[in-house]
Amino acid sequence: FLPEDYLVMSLQEEPWGRIASGIKRYEYRHRFRLRPSVVFIYVTVPTARIEGVLVLGSPIVGTAREIGDLAERHIPGNGEAVFEYFAPKDRGMAIPIAGVKLLDPVPLRWARETYDFLPPQSYMALYKKPELFAFLLSRAGIDDIGDPLRFGFTD
User: Fold this and answer.
1) Are 33 and 2 in contact (CB under 8 A)?
2) 3-state SS, residue 127
3) Which of 3, 110, 111, 124 is placed for a possible disulfide with 117 were both Cys, Cβ 3.0 to 4.6 Å?
């Protein structure tokens, strides 16, 4: 992994909870990078904290039906909702979650005051905020950005 492969992604409480518990193994997006990424998770209001970090694989790009079928195989009963989400553009991405690590939460107010952090609508490159980047790497116990999975991630 390179510095530009590290991101902050915003997620709502419910999908983050399913990822953190190991139930959800894919993140579904209309658009995303086409390469593996390490993603710090900002959980949106009312939680308003950075609570974890994920290692994401290369996205699987497909039609709404293909991605919906994949979602159904992984969480029965979820496929139709995923299909409907992607149906208007008939294209979507299923991003495999290769590793999850929970962090001691970082409150938004503190991150904003200390690092001028503003939560992204979707995701943002972390290297553009080098002090925050260094802090989050330390918080996650990652001292080799090239191989983050060595540092206590679960699959």
Assistant:
1) no
2) helix
3) 111
